[in-house]
Design a protein that fits this description.
By secondary structure, the protein is an alpha/beta fold. Helix content is 34%, strand content 17%. It has 25 helices and 28 strands. α5 packs parallel to α8 and α15 runs parallel beside α25.
Length: 721
C-alpha cells in the first residue's frame, strides 16, 4: 500500500507543474493531504529524483570582448527626443536611471551623432568634445545603478532632413531621392567619405573617454552605412560601389578606424539588418555575408535589426507576432562565432528566454518592453512575472510622439518619460475614494490613488474589468490590447483596491457610501447617426460586432471609416480565413499550393465595404499603425469608398452620395461605426447635490486608449494635491 501511494504521489506530482515548468501553488498542500490521509511521516515534501524548473537562460551572464554583462537583456538605442541641442538632459538621466535600477544587463543610448550632417538636435551628440561631460553623466547613472552602458553612433545619410541639420544638403552614397524626406541628397566625394570615417572614429573616442563600456555602430535601418551597402541607394562606380565587396567597404573601414582609435579591449558592437525588406535591396544571404566580414575585422557582437524605415513589412506594430524576426538572428548566429542579439517584438521574458534556449540568439534587445516596465528584469528574476506591465506594441506613446517631435511616453506606463515629475508620494491625509468604471481609465485611476495611500473602492457594472480594451483586442493583429486589459486588472486585484462587480452606481449609492472623492470613468456609448433607416433590424453597432453579440450576413457595409470602422471591417474580413495552425499544417504537408494558402489566409467568407465621408480612412489611427491597417484592408479585399455620404439605409443596403451622384451599395448587414460620445450620467446629479467629482477617460473626452490610461493616472494621483 505504501509503495502504491508513493507511486501515485510521483505520478500526481506532474500535475503540480504549470505548463511553463514552474510549480503550482497547491503542490505542497496536495502532498500534505496524502501524508495525513495515510499517516505517512516519511513521505518527502518534494518527491526525490524530480528536476526543478530550469533557470531562464535570459539571466545567465555573458561576455562581449572583456566586458562582462550580468544577464542577456540589452535595452537598445531608441529615439527619445529628450536631448536639447544634442545635450543630455535631466529628463533623460532620470529615464535611464530607472531602467538601470530595474535589472537590465546592458543599456544602449542614442543614436549619437558623429558630425553636423548626421542627426537633429534632439539626438544625443557625440560629434564634439563639448558633449563629453553630458555623456559621462549618462554613463555614470547607468553604471552606478547596475547596468553596462553603451552608446550607439550613427550617420543618418539621406534620412536626415535639411531643416534638421542646419539647412545643409544631406549626404549619401548616390544622389537618389529619399521617400522618407522627399529630398535629394548630395553624392559623397572621396574626401567626404574619408571625413565621415574619421568622424565615426572620433565619436567612438568620445564615447570611450566619457566612460562608457562599449560602442555600437548602426549599420542598418536605411541610414548611411546601409545606404552604401544597398544597391538601391548605392550606384557608385568607384571602389565603394558595384559588387557586394565594394559596397561593404565603407562600413568595414569605419570599424577598422574605430578599432584603431579605441584599442583591442574596448567592445565594438554593430547593429545591422538581418533583412532590409526592401525589394531589390539587401536580403538575408547578402547580410549574412556582411556579418561574416564584420566578425573577421574585429567586431565583438552583432545586434540584428530588421527593415528600413521605408519598408512595407510591419516591424514594430502589435500585428507582428512576438519573436517573429528571430529567424534572422539565428541565420547570422550560425555563421559567426561572436554573440548575436535578436530584437523587435521580444516583449516578455518568457519569449526572450526561449529564443536563447532554442539557439536563436545569445542576447535579446528589449526596448519598448523596458519603457513599459523598467523593472521587468527584476520582477522576472524574482518570480514575479504577474507583476509585469507588458508593452503591447501600439506605438501611441513612443513612435507616434517621436514623429511629432515630442519626447516619448507610454500607453501602458504613464510614468515613462516623466520619472522626475511623477514620483509617487504617500498622502498624509488618506481619503475614501469611489471610482466608477472598470475600464482603462478607471483601473488606472484606482491604482494611482491607491499607490498614494488612499482607500479606494472600484465599482464595475459588469462581472469583469477591461471595458473597451476588450473591443480594441478583437480585430486581427490587435490582440495585445487584451494583454493590457489583463495586466491592469491583475494589478488592481493584487492591490489594496476593493473591487465591486455587477453594481451600477447611482446617486443613492454614492450618498450611502459618502466618499471623500469620486472619480467617474464611465466610458462612452456609440453614436447613432441621424440617418433614415438606422432602426431597421439588419442595422447593428460596431461595438456589438466586435464583441460577437450579433451575427452579420455575407455582404456587410460598415458606415464610418475612423479607427473603429477600420478595425470592424478587418474583423469581419477575417471571418472564414484559415487560422495559423491550419495553414502551417497544410503548408508543411504540401497539401495545397502556397498561392492558394495565401488566399485562404487573407480572403474570408464575407464581402465587406467601408464607407467614409472624408477623403481618407483611419485618420484617428496613430501614424505608426495606420499604414499597416490600410495595407491590410487592401490585402483582405475590403472595398473602401471615401468622400461618400450615406443618405439612407434601406432593406437592401445603403443609398449614398458620391461625386454629386446618388448610388446604391447592396448589403444584407449595415454596421454603424460613427464614433462615440461620453457616457457620464452621474456628474450633473452629483454636482447638483454638492458632491465633488472628477472625470477621467472617455467619460470626459473621447480619445485613444493612451488618453484613457494617462488621464486616469493623473486623476487618481491628483487627489492629494
Amino acid at each position: 500500500m505504501i509503495s502504491f501511494i508513493l507511486v501515485m504521489a510521483q505520478r500526481v506530482r506532474f500535475s503540480f507543474y504549470n505548463r511553463d515548468g514552474s510549480f503550482k501553488e497547491q503542490r505542497k498542500s496536495n502532498i500534505l493531504f496524502i501524508k495525513k490521509a495515510k499517516n505517512i511521516e516519511s513521505l518527502p515534501d518534494e518527491p526525490s529524483g524530480v528536476k526543478k524548473p530550469m533557470k531562464n537562460p535570459l539571466f545567465e551572464p555573458i561576455s562581449i570582448n572583456r566586458m562582462k554583462v550580468k544577464n542577456r537583456i540589452n535595452m537598445p538605442a531608441m529615439h527619445l527626443n529628450m536631448c536639447r541641442d544634442f545635450e543630455v538632459t535631466d529628463q533623460m538621466v532620470a529615464f535611464y536611471a530607472e531602467r538601470a535600477k530595474g535589472g537590465a544587463g546592458m543599456i544602449t543610448v542614442g543614436y549619437a551623432t558623429v558630425d553636423e550632417y548626421s542627426g537633429a538636435p534632439l539626438c544625443l551628440g557625440a560629434h564634439r568634445d563639448a558633449f563629453i561631460p553630458g555623456l559621462t553623466r549618462l554613463a555614470d547613472v547607468i553604471q552606478s545603478n547596475g547596468a553596462r552602458a553603451m552608446v550607439q553612433i550613427n550617420h543618418a545619410g539621406r534620412y536626415a532632413h535639411s531643416l534638421m541639420i542646419g539647412n545643409r544638403q544631406p549626404l549619401a552614397p548616390s544622389a537618389i531621392p529619399s521617400r522618407l524626406t522627399r529630398e535629394t541628397p548630395r553624392e559623397m566625394k572621396a574626401e567626404d567619405i574619408e571625413a565621415v570615417i574619421e568622424s565615426f572614429a572620433q565619436a567612438a573616442r568620445r564615447v570611450k573617454t566619457a566612460g562608457f563600456d562599449a560602442v555600437e555602430v548602426l549599420s542598418g535601418t536605411g541610414y548611411l552605412i546601409s545606404e552604401f551597402l544597398s544597391p538601391l541607394t548605392n550606384q557608385r562606380q568607384d571602389a565603394y560601389g558595384g559588387p557586394l565587396e565594394n559596397r561593404m567597404r565603407f562600413g568595414l573601414e569605419i570599424i577598422a578606424a574605430i578599432r584603431n582609435m579605441v584599442g583591442n579591449d574596448f567592445p565594438i558592437v554593430v547593429r545591422m539588418n538581418g533583412n532590409d525588406f526592401m525589394p531589390g535591396g539587401n536580403g538575408r544571404e547578402e547580410l549574412q555575408k556582411c556579418a561574416i566580414a564584420l566578425a573577421r575585422v574585429g567586431v565583438d557582437a552583432l545586434n540584428i535589426n530588421v527593415g528600413w524605415h521605408e519598408a512595407r513589412v510591419p516591424q514594430i506594430t502589435t500585428a507582428v507576432p512576438r519573436g517573429a524576426f528571430a529567424y534572422l538572428s539565428r541565420g547570422i548566429k550560425q555563421e559567426v562565432n561572436i554573440p548575436v542579439m535578436a530584437g523587435h517584438r521580444v516583449h516578455d521574458t518568457k519569449t526572450a528566454g526561449q529564443l536563447i534556449a532554442d539557439g536563436m540568439c545569445d542576447l535579446v534587445s528589449m526596448g519598448r518592453a523596458l519603457i513599459a516596465d523598467p523593472r521587468m528584469p527584476e520582477k522576472a528574476l524574482a518570480g514575479r512575472e504577474k507583476k509585469i506591465r507588458h508593452c503591447i506594441a501600439c506605438g501611441q506613446g513612443c513612435f507616434d510622439r517621436i514623429q511629432r517631435g515630442k519626447p516619448i511616453e507610454c500607453l501602458c506606463n504613464p510614468v515613462a518619460g516623466h520619472e522626475l515629475a511623477c514620483r509617487m508620494e504617500t498622502t498624509n491625509e488618506p481619503k475614501k475614494v469611489m471610482v466608477v468604471g472598470g475600464g482603462a481609465a478607471g483601473m488606472s485611476a484606482a491604482l494611482a490613488a491607491s499607490e498614494c495611500g488612499h482607500r479606494v473602492v472600484l465599482y464595475e457594472k459588469r462581472e469583469s474589468l477591461g471595458g473597451q480594451l476588450r473591443l480594441a483586442a478583437a480585430p486581427p493583429g490587435r490582440e495585445e490590447f487584451r494583454v493590457l486589459s489583463e495586466d491592469l486588472a491583475r494589478q488592481v486585484m493584487d492591490s489594496d483596491v476593493k473591487v465591486v462587480f455587477g453594481r451600477t452606481v447611482d446617486l443613492a449609492l454614492v450618498q450611502d457610501e459618502s466618499p471623500d472623492a469620486v472619480i467617474l470613468a464611465t466610458g462612452a456609448t456609440p453614436i447613432v447617426p441621424p440617418i433614415a433607416g438606422v432602426n431597421l433590424p439588419h442595422v447593428v453597432q460596431a461595438w456589438d460586432v466586435l464583441s460577437d453579440k450579433v451575427i452579420t450576413g455575407s455582404k456587410v457595409i460598415v458606415v464610418g471609416g475612423g479607427a473603429v470602422g477600420v478595425e470592424t471591417a478587418l474583423f469581419l474580413a477575417e471571418k472564414g480565413t484559415l487560422p495559423a495552425d491550419a495553414l502551417q499544417f497544410l503548408f508543411v504537408h504540401q497539401a495545397e499550393d502556397p498561392d492558394f494558402l495565401y488566399e485562404l489566409a487573407t480572403r474570408g467568407t464575407k464581402s465587406v465595404v467601408l464607407v467614409e465621408m472624408i477623403s481618407k480612412v483611419g485618420m484617428d489611427i496613430g501614424k505608426t499603425t495606420r499604414w499597416t491597417m490600410i495595407q491590410e484592408l487592401d490585402r483582405r479585399g475590403v472595398l473602401t469608398h471615401v468622400k461618400t455620404k450615406v443618405l439612407e439605409i434601406t432593406e437592401d443596403g445603403v443609398k449614398v452620395e458620391q461625386d454629386g451622384k446618388e448610388i446604391e451599395i447592396s448589403g444584407d448587414t449595415v454596421v454603424l461605426a460613427a464614433g462615440a460620445t461620453p457616457h457620464n450620467p452621474l456628474q450633473k446629479e452629483l454636482e447638483a447635490k454638492g458632491i465633488a467629482c472628477r472625470v477621467a477617460g472617455d467619460a470626459e473626452k473621447i480619445g485613444l486608449a493612451f488618453d484613457a490610461v494617462h488621464t486616469g493616472f493623473a486623476t487618481g494621483r491628483s487627489l492629494h494635491q
